[in-house]
Write a structure and sequence with these properties.
By secondary structure, this protein is α+β, with helices and mostly antiparallel strands. It has one domain: Peptide methionine sulfoxide reductase (Metal Binding Protein, Guanine Nucleotide Exchange Factor, Chain A, Beta Complex), CATH 2.170.150.20. Helices cover 12% and strands 30% of the residues. The protein has two helices and nine strands; from the N terminus they run ααβββββββββ. Strand 5 and strand 6 form a beta hairpin.
Length: 132
């Protein structure tokens, strides 16, 4: 997949301040502030930056952590994973495969009856499309 590249100025014109801080500067939204938990039924979460499809609503679960959590991405080609050693810890960062937007992190403490993974994603990085 060809990467979508824009200048910081172009991203700033397109995104809100919070979307820019989280997706382009690797920030984190405050827990329990996303409206992603209210979405029910079929639907797909897309990258707020480039519109790429990332996660299915049916794979979302309540991890109690304050951020939308999924047990898997839409496809392994939808996201990329990178080692993140910021903030004095080692984690696995999740980014959009198309535009490199920071989405969140993946942890090995998800539902054991599915994948065992918890994709802990910033809701501000997502755009929900119902009935997709």
């Amino acid at each position: 997949m060809a990467k979508l590249k824009k200048t910081p100025e172009q991203w700033r014109e397109q995104l809100t301040d919070e979307q820019y801080r989280v997706t382009r500067e690797k920030g984190t939204e405050r827990p329990f502030t996303s409206d992603c938990d209210v979405h029910e039924g079929q639907g797909i979460y897309h990258c707020v930056c480039c519109g790429a499809p990332l996660f299915e609503n049916e794979h979302k679960f309540d991890a109690g952590c304050g951020w939308p959590s999924f047990d898997r991405p839409l496809g392994r080609q939808s996201v990329e994973e990178h080692r993140d050693t910021s903030h004095g810890m080692t984690r696995t960062e999740v980014t959009c495969a198309k535009c490199d937007a920071h989405l969140g992190h993946v942890f090995p403490d998800g539902p054991p009856e599915t994948t065992g993974e918890r994709y802990c994603i910033n809701g501000v990085a997502l755009d929900f499309h119902p009935d997709e």
